[in-house]
Amino acid sequence: MEPSEFTLLLRDWSNGDRAALDALTPIVYQELRKLAGGKMNAENPDHTLRPTALVHEAYLRLVQHNQKEWHSRAHFFAVASHLMRQILVDHARKRNTSKRGGGRGDVSLDDAVTFAPEGSALLVALDDGLRDLANVDERKSKILELKYFTGLQGDEIAEALGVSLATVTRETRLATAWLARYISGDAPAPAI
User: Fold this and answer.
1) pTM higher than 0.70, yes or no?
2) Given a cut of 70, is residue 167 above it in pLDDT?
3) DSSP-derived secondary structure for the chain
């Protein structure tokens, strides 16, 4: 399906057209499944949150989401990204309630979002860092969320946020450095 067709269906759905939602469902489900599988492929086989459960929860939240207007496919998946992040972080926080304390050590951003067995504490730290980064620079936080939680490419992020690809590239580097310092806990993250 062409991006413009997808956007038209999103707009029709926003206007109450149930047939548009029915047409979008298999496409959205397939895309969410790819995203969830990518985020959880490094997880232990006995993990309690499966990709299918993540997809179903994200889909239910999207259908119930009170979005007045969808601007594009990228905008839709930006919202989906945020919802998946919330689901994963909520799950990680529940897992970690009895595991307070302990150092996080050095970790890359990619390692933190792959949701590896030891990653739930890192995922919580990543979420905390993204929230703090949003207080300093909301767009940089959103760029990292779209990159690491949705897997959008630079041009898709630029479209979703209405900025240039050069801006996305530059701000990704700055935000990644800021967040790496934040997560490592070695020193306070500098202002951006």
Assistant:
1) no
2) yes
3) --HHHHHHHHHHHHTT-HHHHHHHHHHHHHHHHHHHHHHHTTS-TT-SS-HHHHHHHHHHHHHH---S----HHHHHHHHHHHHHHHHHHHHHHHHTT-------S--HHHHHTT-TTHHHHHHHHHHHHHHHHHH-HHHHHHHHIIIII---HHHHHHHHT--HHHHHHHHHHHHHHHHHHHH-SSPPPP-
